[in-house]
Design a protein that fits this description.
With 464 residues, the chain is mainly beta. The chain has a single domain, classed as Quinoprotein alcohol dehydrogenase-like superfamily (Methanol Dehydrogenase, Chain A, 8 Propeller), CATH 2.140.10.10. It contains three helices and 32 strands. The protein has a four-stranded antiparallel beta sheet with strand order 1-32-31-30, with no helix packed on it. The chain has a four-stranded antiparallel beta sheet with strand order 2-3-4-5, with no helix packed on it. A hairpin with a 4-residue loop joins strand 19 (296-301) and strand 20 (306-315). The longest helix is centred in the N-terminal third of the chain and has 5 residues, at 6-10.
């Protein structure tokens, strides 16, 4: 393995431009784009898509690099399909298929590809890790985490996006013996592993903390005894059949609690476990840890886990964790975005899915002292959508009905700027527009359960 420089880690090992969106949460890894010159008002007739393509059911968002859009799709419960499109036209340039039969709970893809200059890394819901050549669309190598590392597939399938760190790609088998795994990203050979860390749907992230690069992973050890002798009507609902509308969690499931212990693990780029903390438990971790500064981290999740802000301090025996505040609300799927000293997140999760409870959720503004500044509740509710910060605006994807909203990021009040219905969906049921968005060169790529659309948000283009 080549030597890994601190400078490379500070730059997160990515050579893509700031206008690209080459991985989960964009180039910066925090859902914030440096792009400017975007429209701040929509046409009276609403936005029209620059192009639209059909996709299979799923939740995996797009990655964009050098004018190409990449998405991991899923075909008829039989194959993982990595697809490459032209950003300007939506023309499909190539696709790579790998037969992986089976059906996940809530069918479809989960992950965002990680796109390097020559290679693409993607991970299917059943644990296949792919390294695909960008030019040929052919596999350089494929690794089955379940078969090769006794990986244990989480409840909803593997949802972790691959993390590239210089010459390594980090994935999470989450087996009893192997928690995190570092591979030589060119050959697929094992470089290092960590002991088991439990289960998770969260993505490993590289953050510089306390002056050094650290790989952070949020997971949980579940107490399976809670499922013993459980009445049949207390189990999770079956996933929707293909072609069916998504449905909200039944009322009797809204208060269902799973017991266990949470675990936040820090690993050095060389594979040494630096520290762990078990003070925050989410039964199904999805949003990754969020860096506030060199010593503070924000953790959030759904399933009644709430949110916590922690501080890393130097202790007599190494790093110690100090809890600064807890908040009862959290975001189930997507990482919050930060603007100034405030966080903006969609506080929508299973426990406020029933209509009468929606006043508990919506888009929320939280300061770094733990004070809630405002929350939209049911007006608008926004479902489990995604938020991106760009050009001084929050781009808010309504995960419930497919509307795109522009919102001013201010702690004073919820201030909508513009909105446009992007996907033609009924508002009677949750249509699960949950995939993360991608913004590159003024184009916003969004997907529903049936379509992927590209919107041209460039102010210059709208005035032509």
């Amino acid at each position: 393995m080549r030597l890994i420089s601190l400078l490379g880690f500070c730059a997160f090992g990515f050579s893509a431009s700031a206008s690209d969106w080459p991985r989960f949460q964009g180039t910066s890894g925090n859902g914030i784009s440096e792009e400017t010159g975007l429209i701040h008002q929509f046409p009276a007739e609403g936005l029209s898509a620059q192009w639209t393509v059909e996709v299979g059911r799923g939740y995996g968002g797009a990655a964009i690099r050098d004018g190409e859009v990449y998405i991991l799709d899923r075909s008829a419960e039989e194959k993982d399909v990595l697809r490459a499109f032209d950003l300007e036209t939506g023309t499909e340039r190539w696709s790579f298929e790998n037969e992986v039969p089976g059906r996940l709970m809530y069918a479809g893809s989960r992950n965002v590809p990680t796109v390097e200059e020559e290679l693409i890394y993607a991970m299917g819901g059943f644990g296949q890790v792919y390294c695909i050549n960008r030019q040929t669309g052919e596999a350089e190598w494929i690794l089955d985490l379940v078969k090769e590392y006794d990986g244990e597939m989480p409840m909803f399938g593997y949802a972790n996006s691959p993390l590239v760190v210089e010459d390594l790609v980090i994935v999470a088998p989450m087996g009893q013996e192997v928690g995190l795994l570092a591979l030589d990203r060119f050959t697929g050979d094992e470089v290092w592993t960590t002991p088991g860390v439990g289960t998770s749907h969260s993505t490993p992230v590289l953050l510089e903390l306390m002056g050094e690069p650290q790989i952070l992973f949020l997971s949980a050890h579940i107490d399976m005894s809670v499922f013993e002798n459980m009445p049949a009507d207390a189990t999770p609902p079956p996933p929707p059949e293909p072609g069916e509308e998504g449905s909200a969690v039944p009322e009797h499931m809204a208060d269902f609690q799973v017991r266990g212990t949470g675990l936040l693990t820090s690993v050095s780029p060389e594979g040494e476990v630096l520290w762990q903390w078990d003070g925050y438990f989410c039964s199904t971790p999805i949003p990754p840890p969020m860096k506030i500064d060199d010593r503070r981290l924000f953790l959030t999740g759904g399933y009644s886990a709430g949110s916590v802000l922690i501080e890393l301090v130097d202790g007599d025996e190494g790093v110690e964790v100090k809890e600064l505040f807890r908040h009862e609300r959290g975001t189930q799927i997507h990482l919050p975005v930060r603007s100034g000293d405030h966080l903006y997140l969609l506080a929508n999760e299973n426990n406020n899915d029933p209509r009468r409870r929606r006043k508990n959720g919506g888009l929320m503004c939280l300061d770094l002292e733990g004070n809630e500044k405002w929350r939209t509740g049911d007006d608008p509710y926004l479902g489990r959508g995604n938020v991106v910060l760009a050009d001084g605006m929050l781009l808010v994807q309504d995960g419930y009905n497919g509307t795109l909203r522009l919102v001013e990021p201010t702690p004073e009040a919820y201030r909508p700027i513009a909105q446009s219905k992007i996907f033609d969906l009924s508002e009677r049921r949750d249509h699960q527009v949950w995939a993360p968005m991608a913004l590159s060169h003024g184009r916003l790529v969004m997907r529903s359960q049936e379509e992927m659309k590209c919107l041209d948000l460039r102010a210059a283009a709208s005035s032509e």
